[in-house]
């Protein structure tokens, strides 16, 4: 006889359909950013296919419209709905306009999934002069989510997409724009992904009194448009190093996840996991990740979250610095 716990527990190979099996999201309203490719499209599709009213945000609405045809079909077939809103996270004017539109409409959200992001970009700046990755991945979402926080229903959730890439670097609040530090694409990516976790920690502290919980998730290694800036040779080298480490530990070779497997942790944390289980935590492979010491030697595919990424004091310092940078207090 199958152990009930085994039958209902999920892991690295679970898909969105696995974690949402038997789940009815009728009447739930969910915002997902970054619905023009990859994880965002699958996250929106799986939720709408289970009856949710999904609002998808994207910078390029034409691209998003083409990419989400299946989302609309699955929504229509299962009592869900899907609509698009324009959002360029690298431009605070666009972020604020998107927030204003949502606030003017006034419809509440049960969940906000801050999925959009960029990875390992060449050195550059957003429209507001922030380093591209920190500005897009963290500050854009920081302003959007805080501006629409009143729309998140009591008992709702915020899910921030982070990454195991947070291990590359803690946030640098003295030099967030790389004005005094040599720019390294993966260090900048690491800082922004750590910021996504710390933002969830600080947001959770501010809103848990009304039952709103926030968590960060790592989707796993997936081949999506996110890696478009990374030299394929470098990616191959990283995978080669990972496999050497795994072989030395007597473990099987690293395998990329499919997109439905990658999006599974997002939807699990958003609508399946217990709120108190995931609040102010980092989740991966459809479970809450273990905390590992900052100096622990871990492979790129080891599980776990660095202690610095969950540090409450750093989370508060980042919140304050972010407010200074965007010129707005929340």
Brief digest:
By secondary structure, this protein is α/β, with parallel strands linked by helices. The protein contains 13 helices and ten strands.
Question: What would you say this structure looks like, in words?
Answer:
Residues 1-7 have low confidence and may be disordered. The longest helix has 23 residues, at 185-207. Helix 6 runs parallel beside helix 7 (132-147). This protein has one domain (6-223, 258-322): Rossmann fold (3-Layer(aba) Sandwich). Helices cover 42% and strands 15% of the residues. The protein is built from 13 helices and ten strands. The chain is α/β, with parallel strands linked by helices.
Question: Can you lay out the helices and strands and say which pair or pack?
Answer:
Elements: H1 4-8, H2 16-19, E1 29-33, H3 38-48, E2 53-58, H4 61-67, H5 69-77, E3 81-86, H6 92-105, E4 109-114, H7 132-147, E5 152-161, H8 185-207, E6 213-218, H9 232-248, H10 259-262, H11 264-272, H12 275-278, E7 282-284, E8 287-288, E9 291-292, E10 305-306, H13 312-326
Parallel strand pairs: 1-2, 1-4, 2-3, 4-5, 5-6, 6-7, 9-10
Antiparallel strand pairs: 7-8
Helix pairs in contact: 3-5, 6-7, 7-8, 8-13
Task: Give a quick set of tags describing it.
42% helix; 330 residues; disordered N terminus; Rossmann fold; two-stranded parallel ribbon; globular; alpha/beta; 8-stranded mixed sheet
Secondary-structure element order, as H and E?
HHEHEHHEHEHEHEHHHHEEEEH
- Please work out how many helical segments DSSP would assign: 13
Query: What is the overall pLDDT average?
Result: 92
CATH-defined superfamily: NAD(P)-binding Rossmann-like Domain
CATH class: Alpha Beta
Domains, number: 1
From the alpha-carbon coordinates, what is the Rg to the nearest angstrom?
19 Å
Helix vs. strand class: alpha/beta
- Identify the overall geometry: globular
């Amino acid at each position: 006889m199958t152990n009930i716990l085994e039958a209902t527990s999920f892991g690295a190979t679970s898909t969105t359909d696995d974690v949402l099996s038997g789940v009815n999201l009728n009447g739930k309203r969910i915002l997902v950013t970054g619905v023009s490719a990859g994880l965002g499209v699958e996250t929106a599709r799986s939720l709408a296919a289970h009856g949710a009213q999904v609002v998808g945000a994207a910078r390029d609405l034409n691209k998003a419209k083409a990419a989400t045809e299946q989302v609309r079909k699955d929504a229509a077939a299962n009592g869900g709905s899907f609509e698009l809103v324009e959002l360029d996270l690298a431009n605070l004017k666009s972020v604020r306009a998107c927030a204003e539109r949502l606030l003017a409409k006034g419809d509440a959200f049960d969940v906000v999934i801050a999925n959009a992001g960029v990875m390992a970009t060449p050195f550059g700046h957003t429209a507001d002069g922030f380093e591209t990755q920190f500005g897009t991945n963290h500050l854009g979402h920081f302003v959007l989510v805080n501006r629409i926080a009143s729309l998140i229903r009591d008992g709702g959730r915020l899910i921030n997409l982070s990454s195991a890439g947070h291990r590359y670097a803690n946030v640098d609040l003295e030099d967030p724009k790389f004005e005094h530090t040599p720019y390294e694409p993966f260090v900048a990516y690491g800082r922004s992904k750590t910021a996504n976790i710390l933002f969830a920690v600080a947001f959770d502290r501010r809103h848990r009194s009304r039952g709103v919980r926030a968590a960060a998730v790592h989707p796993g290694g997936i081949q999506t448009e996110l890696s478009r800036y990374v030299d394929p040779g470098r990616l191959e080298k990283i995978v080669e190093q990972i496999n050497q480490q795994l072989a030395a530990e007597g473990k099987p070779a690293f395998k990329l996840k499919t997109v439905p497997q990658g999006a599974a942790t997002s939807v699990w944390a958003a609508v399946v996991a217990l709120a108190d289980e995931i609040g102010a935590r980092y989740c991966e492979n459809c479970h809450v990740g273990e905390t590992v010491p900052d100096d622990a030697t871990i492979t790129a595919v080891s599980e776990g979250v660095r202690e610095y990424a969950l540090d409450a004091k750093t989370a508060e310092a980042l919140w304050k610095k972010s407010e200074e940078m965007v010129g707005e207090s929340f």
